[in-house]
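For reproducibility, we list the full input for the zinc ion complex.
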Amino acid sequence: MEKYFLYPRKSTDVEDKQVLSIEAQIVELRKYAKDNGFEIVDTIIEKRSAKSPGRPKFNKMLERIQNGEANGILAWHPDRLARNSIDGGQIIYLLDQNILQYLRFPMFRFENTSQGKFVLSIMFSQSKYYVDNLSENVKRGLRQKLRRGEYPGKAPIGYYNDLRTKTIKIDKKTAPIIVKAYEMFATGNYKIAAIADFLAENGIKKKNGRTFYWTRVKNILTNVFYYGHFAYGGEVYEGKHKAIISKRLFDKVQAVMDKRSNNTKAIIKQPKPFCGLLKCSCSMSVTATTKVKRQQNGNTHAWTYYHCTKKSKAVRCMEAPVRSEALDAQLSAVLKEYQMPASLAAGLCELIGKDEKAEEAQTSKASASLRAEIAQLAGKQSILLDSYLNQDIDRDIFTAKKAEIMSRKKTLEEKLERTLSGQNAWVEPMRKWIAKAVSIRKIAESGDLVAKKCVLAEIFGSNLFLKDKKVVINDDKFLSPPLKNQWTALRAALAAPASRRGISFVEGPMRLELMTPCLKGRCSNRLSYGPVVRLPSDYTTK
Ligand SMILES: [Zn+2]
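The corresponding predicted structure, in tokenized form, follows.
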């Protein structure tokens, strides 16, 4: 007689997540028993995990079987009975003793034979294996995901996780900023802090609104994700996501990074941006020294000082060194005196446009008259030849007259060539200069020391000096008239009080001439006065 205990089991543990609910197991098992004509003695509901031995209801059930209340167990699957070797061994031992005779599972066919018991023991040990390897399975699934090129995490800045397609897509808003940061750093002219500022200016910053720490910026600048790979668990994988930078740009950035990081010698050897720009008041060159302080935690801090080379044997220089930051602030302030306000630039460009058009009209008029004159001479030459051939004139007159016409023609031809090639030649340099003058404001406000040096060198040449830790301009030679270049002219025009400007430019209120002799070559008569910057009378500096 087959008498069964019905044993549904489901725990809340993760390994039972996929198993039918206890209610469903009961329904299915009752139906199975009815279909096969099994007698059910009792239903023993278990809600404990079978991972480790010690389920009270399971143990009680085995006890009752030993007492002869039933001789069979009906369960959904062998893994409902045991997921550990001790419980599994108990079941098999009872089967060996013939105390337990029948095991029935809708999902698994068991026969009480030596072969059947062998398979069952495998099922039990497999259930155990399943538990043991559950976490391993999760990892395996992850590894498969990684091999497929799917990054299993939050997308870095520049990308976003598309939850709908479960892929990582390019964030059109932030990606260009990341690319720009890479490009900036690759030039070698920016420190990581400057990149952090740039990112912050463009809205990429910490949640509390502060600028990223340099470590975070460094992480961004060394993330292989941006060129199409990704690192996970210390390993690099080929990603499915689209790259936003080239491997080449990435490598450039790494080269700059390597040069700087952990290499204080490299810090010292880096050329200092302001070297060669200034001279000491003793007329010797100014050089820079970087002092590095190593902290115990491995961080290094570097300070740069600019100071006299003290190479003069005649003068004993007493000038003190200046911190790079202090010098930068002073030079930026000096630079700002030469920034052209956008409103003025717009006015100038408009006038240049007018001048350009007027000049075009003038040249076309001039070249037309030259062409006409050349054509006339060619006609004369032809008539002269005819006259000579008709023997109206003799050979001596012919040759003399011909030489005269040809000489005149050659002169005019060259003049025509000059007119055409010289047309508006000053416009492009002028426009570029205005753009540069406008950009000074941004350069002065930026941390781009190299750019500052370039503009300062163009404006001042070798007229910047360092005296008592202050930047001094050689007034006598540079700022006093005659003005040296278009920059000093611009500064003078901007600095002039509006009243004086009114008097100076009374002869042509809107007639603005920003013609520097060097730029607009033909105004040779202005050379002695230097460049002229005239502001529109309605222009105000504020
Ligand atoms: Zn000196």
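The CA atoms of residues 101 and 165 lie 53 Å apart. The longest strand covers residues 286-294. Both points were considered when choosing residues for closer inspection.
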